[in-house]
Amino acid sequence: MKVTLPRPRLESIASTACNSSSPNYAPRITKYLQLGPLARIGPNNLITSDPEIFRHILSVRSNYQRGPWFDCLRLDPHRANLITERDIKTHNVLRAQMSAGYHGKDVDQFEAILDQNMAAWLTYVENNGVSVPGHPREFEIARSVQWLLYDMVCRLCFGHPFGFVEKHSDCYQFQQTLEERLPIVEKFAVLTEVNTWIKFISHIPVLRDVLPAPSDENGIGAILGLAEKAVKQRNGPGMQPRGDIIDSWLQRGVDPSLAVSEITIALFAGSDTTATSIRALLLHIITNPLVYAKVKQEINTAEAQGELSNPAAEAELKQLPYLQTCIKEGLRVFPPITALRERVVPDGGDTLRGVYIPAGTNIGLNLPGMLRNEVFGLDAHVFRPERWLEADEEQLQRMERVHELLFNWGSTRCLGIRLANTMIGKFFVEVFRRWDITSTHPQQPWKSRCHGIFYQTDFHVRITSGDSMRPLTP
């Protein structure tokens, strides 16, 4: 008997149907969850929120390749980087060459760099964002967190920040360019034929000017130019190793031109996702008084008992179970990526949940939908950290098995997990041990747009000194 997959009404005529990457993506996620774990959203496009299908598609020995969706993220239409490489063997080689840099294993004083960067941001906020009696201030923290993360990635890659925190502004108009271009890139991810056209016109000198170039004064091209200059310097005679990510990649055999592209991708992919995770968790905590009180109490108690250094060490963060639970729940309720990241069914086709899927079919991964799986309970749509503490051992294992897919799986598992988790933990410990934060516009706390990744603005807060104010250390 032929099995017909469910499909949304009128929306199977084009793969644009499931742009969960839209400003109001949440209702669409709910809509597709109602269709079940596997649904048709286009003539050759399916979407899944089934964790077992996720695991099957992304496993190390899987023959599923990345689909044409990934071509839209290329900075150079003729060359892929780690994120956009679709050939499995080539991707695995790049991953092996770059993993030590992303993990921080080859970065001298990895944690000290994070602490120095965090201290510079804390000093700026103390001087420009904290309210005192008689002088109330309203601080826009969404952009501020973005500048913190940009400088952090720059420091890890280049060995020095670009000045996002010091100037507290959009250096090289990088953020502005991303926000202008990502909605266009999002459409290219759906209308994949456009990528072939872009690849063609890039051979025409006059038309190539529409693409980012290292000679640009602003935007993505300007960052490419800075990366190109840095990579050339490392290959110059007599240059001493600097112990940063660029050094790691070059020493492990990454082609210099690829390193230039990879740095630029790392700057927005690594910083935007972590910044979104921090902003979303901050909003969920400060709008949940009981959660907020528990987090503050745990941090204050650990500090009073001498269990927190100044600044807090990476190992100490893991000894704060309630904070770690909040981070886990925040990532689940508000994952920083909603893009479908389609994979292609391999030759010979595949059978998923009893349904035969022909070779060449694109299957999109509905990450937000998957993280609202029934394993998390009837209130899976709600931010409730206690669910992780109430679960028995068997239930907890089932929840962990789904949650761990948040960072991808197998040979595509995110290489920046350590960096993201450490930076998120450090942010909340250092902020909450010093200050209290409230939203100044609780009825509309922020503006949030999504085009595969999120952009939040107008997140206005009031920051006041807390009970356990500590001196800042560089």
From TrEMBL:
Keywords: Heme, Iron, Metal-binding, Monooxygenase, Oxidoreductase
InterPro entries xrefs: Cyt_P450, Cyt_P450_E_grp-I, Cyt_P450_sf, Cytochrome_P450_monoxygenase
Keyword hit for Metal-binding: yes
Residues binding heme, per UniProt: C414
SUPFAM superfamilies: Cytochrome P450
GO terms of molecular function: heme binding; iron ion binding; monooxygenase activity; oxidoreductase activity, acting on paired donors, with incorporation or reduction of molecular oxygen
Transmembrane is among the record's keywords: no
CDD domains named among the record's database cross-references: CYP57A1-like
Cofactor: heme
Pfam families: p450 (PF00067)
Family assignment from sequence similarity: Belongs to the cytochrome P450 family.
Protein name as it appears in the record: Putative P450 monooxygenase
The species this protein was found in: Byssochlamys spectabilis (strain No. 5 / NBRC 109023)
